[in-house]
Model the fold of this input.
Amino acid sequence: MEITRATPSDLVQTVDRLVRAFARDPITGFLLQDGPTYRERLTRFFSLLMRARIALDMPVLVAREGDKIHGIVMGNIPSSPAWPAGIAQEWEDFERAVPGMVDRLAVYEGIAAQHAPAVPHYYLGVIGVDPAMHGRGIGMQLISAFCELSVADDRSHGVYLETGEPSNVRFYERADFIETGRGAMGDATLWCMYRSHEREGD
Done:
């Protein structure tokens, strides 16, 4: 298994893996609302996130085995730039097309912002592994690679993430994340977690 930077040609295969991984995820379920169009919304959601981050040269890493992609992790660096105008417009159109998404996103972002660290950090926004490949340590490899990028960046003091899946909390704790807070997100709970890098002066 090799962890590499994603390229635009990886988009279709990678989004397919994410759609499988997030088929019953509490966060995307809350934001996009389950129903007959959920898979279509999920596909567009992850495609926009991935395209924007690749365009901005943000961290987008995939787990490869030959020509197969089995997992992905992507997120933001400290002081992330604005999205390219065309993708930003697509995102606004997407938000308007999903009833109530803007309000639900505000709830989610409010909880996340409340418990995010005050120091500059990397944000691990999405991590997903093809369910058929679970149990092979791919998720931990992806987290480690993402955290290594943060450690190598002198601006960053750590990595922050959120999860709505109770079983993931222990997984992240094994990767040295600690809970910074939580909040109610509809019927689900959003856990906020942080892994600090000790820097001089911290």
